[in-house]
C-alpha cells in the first residue's frame, strides 16, 4: 500500500505535501495519487477585510480568508523561495513576475492539453462552488454592479477557467471566466465563456452588490492548473486592462516597513478613555459606555493593511471601529479571553488595502460589553499598525522610517545651518551662462503717486539669473530702499530681484531689475535712497559681512505724493490696517475699525493652473484649479497676465468682494502638505531660488484684492511642513520644512521675500503657520524676524490645533511676545462663541489685547457647509450624515465670534462637502452665507455701533456659561448689543447704567434698517425686559440698546 503523506508547515503557514521515501516500487504509484492526502495551503489572512474605495477594490490572490472543498483539488502557494511538491505540475514557477513574488495554483494538474482525459469533478468543474473554493472578506460602502477582473497565467488551453461568486451564491454572471489571450504571461482579463464565444465575451463577468457592509467574495475551480495572482472589482464598466508586466505589491519579508501608532499617542482625554498600565487605552465602565480617540495620520499617503490590536478580556466582547476622516475603515468584535486581559494575534483585526492620506484624521472608537450583565469589559486596545499594501507605499514608508531614524542627528544642527532641511539647487553651476551686461544704475519710480497707493522703485542693477548660486541673487544681494518724508518719518523697505521687470508677462528668469514697493502714508515730498550690498547671506542678515556696490548703492531721488482718489470698498480709500493695542484693527487713514468676514478655503487658492511653475504634487486628489465658475465674474479692465490669463481667479476675488465679504486666505507654502502644489521657489525642493514670474502673478491677484477691499490672510506654512515634527507626531524628519522649524537661512529668506514682494498691501496678516507644532522659541524667533523685516508692522497671528490652544498661546500672551492676535480653530461650531470670549479675556487680562479671529470653526469634515440646495445639499454630507445648515453657522460662528468680542471670521469648507478646502473652485457654493456675512458687518458699520470699545457681557442677559442661547456685547453705560439666535426675548441687567436707552431690532437674516419692537425704550438702574421683535419671533434678531 502507499504510505500516508505527512504534511509539514513552513514559516509562512503554508502546508504542502511531501512524499516519504520507502524502499518499495509502490512509491512510484504515489505520483498519481498524491493529492488524496495533501493538506492545502492555509488561509493567509483569515482576519483581513478588504475595503472598497470609490467603487474599486484590488486583492492579492494569496490573501484569502479561507479555503474549502479541497479533497480533490486545492489552491497551493508558490513564492520565489518555495514551491509546493504536489505532482503532477507541468509548469515551472512564475513567481518572479507575480505580484509580490507569490501566487496560487490549482493542483494537481492532470489535464494540460485537449488530448488529456477530462474528468468531471476531478480535473474539471463546470459547476461553481464545488471544488477548491477561496473566500475573501470585503467591506463595500458603494453598492452597485462590480465588474470582476483576474490576473492569471495560462500556458495552454486547459488551465484558463475560473468561477466567481458572492455571499455563498454563484450567479450566472460570475461563471466561466475565460483566458485565451496573454498566454505565457501574467495577464488581466474579464471575459465570460459563452456558447457563441468560447474565448469569452467582455463585460459579462460581474457581481451585483445591493447593500453596503461586509460581504464574502468566492472563487472556485473550473480547470486545474489555473494560476491566480490578483483580482479586482470595479463599478467602472469601461475599466481598461491594467498594463502587463510585473505587478507592484511589495514582497512580504523582513524588510517591509510596518509603521505604528501606539494608542497612548492618540488624543483621548476628552473622548472617554483613560491610559491603562501606560500602554492601553481603556474605558472605565462606571463613567462611560463608549469612547473615541483621534490622531492625525503622520505617515506617507498610500495603501496599507491596517491592524487594530485590541486586548482580549474575559468579562465581555468589546466592539471596535476604525475610521479615517470619518470614513469607515472597518469594525469588529473582539473574541473573549480566558483571563482578565490577554494580548495576541487572535485579538487583532486587519483591514486590508486601505487608502489613507497623510494628514487624515484617524479615529478609533470602542464600546464595552458584558457577558453576564454584571461585569463589563473595558474595550482596551494598544496600537494601530500600517503595513504597506503596494510597492509605492512600501518605498514611501521605508523612506519615512529612514528619515525618522536620522532626526536625532538633524535636530542638533545650528539654526543658521542651511542643511537643517535639505535644499536642492536646480542648477549645479555657480552662474548661468551666457551672462549679460549689468544695468546702468538708473532708477525709475512708477505707480500712482498717491497716499496709500503702490509706488515702485526699480533699480537697473546687476545682471542675475534665478538659478545663480554664487552669488545667489536672493540670498547674497541685499537691495533696500529708504523712504523719508519731509516731516522726518521714514521707512526702510526690503527689495528683491525682479528679473526683467515684467516677468508676470514674459516668464523671464533673468535680468537687471531690482525693486521695492512702498505705500506712502503721507502726502507731500518723499525722498528715496537705494542701498545695495553683496556678500554671503547679505539679504537675510544686516550684520553679515557685505560690501556696498558703488555702481548701484546710494542712488537717490524725490517724488511727490497726492491724496488718494479712491472711495468705497477700495482699501486705498481707508489706509493701512494696523494693530493699535485693541481687540480690533484700525485703518490708519479713516480711523475706522475693522470686522473681518470671508473665505478660509480653499487653502490651495494659489494652486492655480495659470500661475507659472505651478505643479500638482497630488494630481489625483488635488488637481490644479482653474476657477471656471468665476470666469464670468471677471470685468473688462481687470488685470490679467500673459495675454488674458488669470481671469478665473481675478473673477473669484471680484465675486467675493461683490457679496460684501472682505477677506480671503491662502497658503504660500504647502510642499509636503495636504495640497502639495504651492511654493514660491523655482522648483519644489530648491528653497533658496525664487520664481520671479510666479510671484509677480501672485502679486497681481493680491493687489487686485487690496483694490477691492479684501484683507489678505497669508498662511506662511502648514502643520505638515512647519518643522520636523510632522503634524502632531513628536518625532520625524520633514525635508520640505524650512530649517526643520528653526530660524535659519531658508526661513529668513522665505520671510524676507514674502514681505518684500507683498508687504505693501494695506490689509493683511502674517500667520506663522496653520496648525503649528513648532515650539515657543521657534515662534518667538519668527515673530521677531518678521517684526525686523516688515517696515509696516502688519498684524501677526498664530493658528494651532483645537486641543493645543493653551499650550501654544499662553506662552505668547502679554509682553511675552509681539504676537498681535490669534487665528482660532475648533472641532465644533458650537464652541466658537465661548472660545472667542476666552481668548479675548485672557489677552486683555495679560495687558495686551489680541485680535481674536475664528478662521476654522467646525470639524475638518464639515466646517462651513454649502447653501441648502447647492448641488442638492439638504443638510447631509457625502456620507449621508445629517450635519447642519448655513443658518447654524450664521448664528454660532459668525455672530458667535462678533458677539464674543472677536475680530471676525473666515469660513473653512469641510472635506465631506462639495467644493471643499482642497478642491473648491466655486465660492458661490456658500452664496447665502456670504450674504449673512455682509448683513452682520453692516449692522455694526451702518449703525455706528462702537464694537471696538465693547466687550462681551453675556452675564447681563443671564448667560454666564457663554453658551449659544443668547449673547451680549457691551460698552457699559452707553451701548449694548443683544443677539438672540433662537428668537424670543430676554431681560438685560442695566443696574450699573443710568438714563434712558432706545431699543432697536435688526433682522440678522436679511439686514436692512433698524426696526422697533414692542418696547421702544428702557431705563437703567435695574433688570429690564427688551420686549418682542417686530416679526418672526422664532427667528434670530440683533437688538441695539443705546442712549
UniProtKB/TrEMBL annotation:
Biased composition (Polar residues): 412-430
Alphabetical list of Gene3D superfamilies matching this protein: 2.60.120.1620, Glycosidases, Immunoglobulins
One Pfam entry name: Collagen_bind_2
InterPro entries listed in its UniProt record: Collagen-bd_put, DUF5060, GH115_C, Ig-like_fold
Domain (Putative collagen-binding): residue spans on this chain: 954-1041
Stretches the record annotates as Disordered: 81-100, 410-444
Domain named DUF5060: residues: 450-532
Positions of the Gylcosyl hydrolase 115 C-terminal domain: 50-236
Protein name: DUF5060 domain-containing protein
Amino acid at each position: 500500500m502507499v504510505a500516508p503523506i505527512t504534511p509539514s508547515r513552513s514559516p509562512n503557514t503554508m502546508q504542502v505535501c511531501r512524499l516519504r521515501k520507502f524502499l518499495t516500487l509502490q512509491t512510484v504509484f504515489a505520483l498519481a495519487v498524491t493529492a488524496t492526502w495533501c493538506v492545502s495551503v492555509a488561509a493567509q489572512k483569515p482576519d483581513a477585510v478588504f475595503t472598497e474605495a470609490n467603487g474599486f477594490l484590488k486583492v492579492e490572490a494569496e490573501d484569502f480568508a479561507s479555503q474549502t472543498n479541497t479533497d480533490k483539488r486545492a489552491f497551493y502557494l508558490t513564492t520565489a523561495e518555495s514551491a509546493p511538491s504536489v505532482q503532477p505540475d507541468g509548469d515551472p514557477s512564475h513567481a518572479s513576475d507575480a505580484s509580490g513574488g507569490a501566487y496560487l495554483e490549482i493542483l494537481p494538474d492532470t489535464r494540460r492539453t485537449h488530448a488529456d482525459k477530462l474528468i468531471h469533478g476531478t480535473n474539471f468543474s463546470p459547476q461553481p462552488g464545488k471544488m477548491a473554493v477561496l473566500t475573501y472578506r470585503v467591506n463595500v460602502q458603494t453598492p452597485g454592479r462590480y465588474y470582476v477582473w483576474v490576473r492569471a497565467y495560462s500556458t495552454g488551453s486547459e488551465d484558463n477557467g475560473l468561477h466567481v461568486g458572492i455571499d455563498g451564491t454563484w450567479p450566472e454572471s460570475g461563471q466561466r471566466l475565460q483566458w485565451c489571450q496573454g498566454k505565457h504571461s501574467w495577464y488581466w482579463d474579464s471575459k465570460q465563456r459563452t456558447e457563441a464565444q468560447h474565448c469569452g465575451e467582455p463585460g459579462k463577468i460581474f457581481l451585483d452588490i445591493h447593500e453596503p457592509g461586509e460581504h464574502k467574495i468566492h472563487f472556485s475551480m473550473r480547470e486545474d492548473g489555473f494560476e491566480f495572482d490578483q483580482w479586482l472589482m470595479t463599478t467602472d464598466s469601461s475599466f481598461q486592462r491594467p498594463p502587463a508586466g510585473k505587478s507592484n505589491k511589495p514582497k512580504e519579508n523582513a524588510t517591509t516597513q510596518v509603521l505604528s501608532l501606539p494608542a497612548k499617542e492618540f488624543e483621548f482625554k476628552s473622548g472617554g478613555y483613560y491610559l491603562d498600565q501606560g500602554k492601553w487605552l481603556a474605558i472605565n465602565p462606571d463613567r462611560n459606555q463608549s469612547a473615541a480617540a483621534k490622531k492625525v495620520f503622520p505617515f506617507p499617503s498610500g495603501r496599507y493593511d491596517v491592524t487594530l490590536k485590541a486586548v482580549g478580556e474575559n468579562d465581555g466582547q468589546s466592539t471596535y471601529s476604525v475610521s479615517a476622516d470619518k470614513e469607515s475603515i472597518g469594525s469588529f468584535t473582539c473574541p473573549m479571553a480566558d483571563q482578565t486581559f490577554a494580548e495576541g494575534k487572535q485579538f487583532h483585526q486587519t483591514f486590508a488595502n486601505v487608502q489613507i492620506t497623510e494628514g487624515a484624521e484617524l479615529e478609533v472608537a470602542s464600546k464595552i460589553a458584558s457577558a453576564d450583565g454584571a461585569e463589563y469589559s473595558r474595550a482596551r486596545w494598544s496600537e494601530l499598525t500600517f503595513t504597506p499594501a503596494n510597492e509605492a507605499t512600501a518605498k514611501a514608508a521605508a523612506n519615512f522610517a529612514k528619515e525618522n531614524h536620522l532626526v536625532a542627528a538633524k535636530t542638533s544642527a545650528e539654526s543658521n545651518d542651511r542643511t537643517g532641511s535639505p535644499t536642492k539647487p536646480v542648477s549645479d553651476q555657480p552662474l548661468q551662462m551666457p551672462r549679460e551686461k549689468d544695468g546702468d544704475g538708473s532708477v525709475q519710480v512708477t505707480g500712482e503717486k498717491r497716499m496709500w497707493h503702490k509706488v515702485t522703485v526699480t533699480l537697473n542693477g546687476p545682471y542675475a539669473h534665478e538659478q545663480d548660486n554664487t552669488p545667489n541673487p536672493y540670498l547674497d544681494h541685499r537691495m533696500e530702499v529708504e523712504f523719508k518724508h519731509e516731516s522726518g518719518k521714514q521707512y526702510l523697505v526690503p527689495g528683491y530681484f525682479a528679473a526683467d521687470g515684467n516677468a508676470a508677462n514674459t516668464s523671464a528668469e533673468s535680468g537687471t531689475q531690482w525693486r521695492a514697493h512702498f505705500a506712502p502714508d503721507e502726502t507731500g515730498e518723499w525722498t528715496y535712497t537705494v542701498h545695495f550690498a553683496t556678500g554671503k547671506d547679505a539679504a537675510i542678515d544686516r550684520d553679515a559681512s557685505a560690501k556696498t556696490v558703488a555702481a548701484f548703492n546710494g542712488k537717490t531721488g524725490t517724488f511727490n505724493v497726492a491724496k488718494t482718489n479712491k472711495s468705497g470698498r477700495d482699501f486705498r480709500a481707508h489706509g493701512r490696517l494696523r494693530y493699535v493695542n485693541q481687540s480690533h484693527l484700525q485703518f490708519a487713514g479713516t480711523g475706522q475699525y475693522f470686522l473681518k468676514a470671508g473665505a478660509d478655503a480653499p487653502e490651495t487658492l494659489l494652486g492655480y493652473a495659470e500661475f507659472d511653475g505651478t505643479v500638482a504634487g497630488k494630481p489625483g486628489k488635488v488637481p490644479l484649479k482653474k476657477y471656471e465658475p468665476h470666469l464670468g465674474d471677471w470685468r473688462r479692465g481687470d488685470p490679467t497676465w500673459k495675454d488674458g490669463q488669470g481671469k478665473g481667479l481675478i473673477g473669484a476675488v471680484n465675486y467675493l468682494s461683490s457679496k460684501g465679504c472682505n477677506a480671503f486666505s491662502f497658503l504660500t507654502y504647502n510642499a509636503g502638505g495636504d495640497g502639495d502644489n504651492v511654493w514660491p521657489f523655482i522648483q519644489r525642493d530648491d528653497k533658496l531660488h525664487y520664481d520671479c514670474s510666479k510671484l509677480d502673478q501672485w502679486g497681481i491677484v493680491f493687489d487686485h484684492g487690496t483694490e477691492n477691499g479684501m484683507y489678505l490672510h497669508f498662511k506662511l506654512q502648514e502643520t505638515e511642513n512647519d518643522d520636523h515634527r510632522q503634524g502632531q507626531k513628536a518625532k520625524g524628519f520633514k525635508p520640505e520644512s524650512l530649517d526643520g522649524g528653526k530660524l535659519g537661512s531658508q526661513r529668513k529668506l522665505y520671510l524676507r521675500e514674502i514681505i518684500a514682494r507683498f508687504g505693501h498691501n494695506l490689509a493683511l496678516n502674517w500667520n506663522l503657520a496653520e496648525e503649528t507644532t513648532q515650539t515657543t522659541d521657534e515662534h518667538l524667533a519668527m515673530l521677531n524676524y518678521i517684526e525686523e523685516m516688515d517696515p509696516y508692522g502688519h498684524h501677526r497671528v498664530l493658528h494651532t490645533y483645537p486641543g493645543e490652544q493653551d499650550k501654544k498661546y499662553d506662552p505668547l500672551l502679554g509682553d511675552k511676545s509681539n504676537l498681535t492676535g490669534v487665528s482660532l480653530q475648533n472641532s465644533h461650531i458650537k464652541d466658537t462663541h465661548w472660545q472667542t470670549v476666552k481668548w479675548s479675556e485672557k489677552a486683555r487680562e495679560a495687558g495686551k489685547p489680541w485680535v481674536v479671529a475664528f478662521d476654522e470653526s467646525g470639524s475638518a469634515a464639515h466646517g462651513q457647509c454649502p447653501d441648502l440646495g447647492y448641488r442638492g445639499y439638504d443638510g447631509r454630507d457625502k456620507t449621508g450624515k445629517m450635519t447642519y445648515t448655513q443658518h447654524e453657522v450664521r448664528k454660532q460662528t459668525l455672530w458667535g465670534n462678533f458677539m464674543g468680542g472677536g475680530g471676525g471670521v473666515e469660513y473653512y469648507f469641510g472635506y465631506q462637502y462639495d467644493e471643499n478646502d482642497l478642491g473648491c473652485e466655486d465660492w458661490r457654493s456658500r452664496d447665502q452665507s456670504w450674504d449673512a456675512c455682509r448683513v452682520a458687518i453692516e449692522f455694526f458699520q451702518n449703525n455706528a455701533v462702537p464694537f471696538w470699545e465693547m466687550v462681551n457681557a453675556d452675564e447681563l442677559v443671564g448667560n454666564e456659561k457663554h453658551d449659544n442661547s443668547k449673547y451680549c456685547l457691551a460698552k457699559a453705560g452707553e451701548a449694548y448689543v443683544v443677539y438672540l439666535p433662537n428668537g424670543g426675548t430676554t431681560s438685560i441687567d442695566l443696574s450699573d447704567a443710568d438714563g434712558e436707552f432706545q431699543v432697536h431690532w435688526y433682522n440678522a437674516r436679511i439686514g436692512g434698517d433698524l426696526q422697533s419692537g414692542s418696547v421702544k425704550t428702557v431705563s437703567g438702574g435695574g433688570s429690564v425686559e427688551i420686549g418682542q421683535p417686530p416679526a418672526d419671533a422664532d427667528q434670530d434678531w440683533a437688538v441695539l440698546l443705546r442712549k
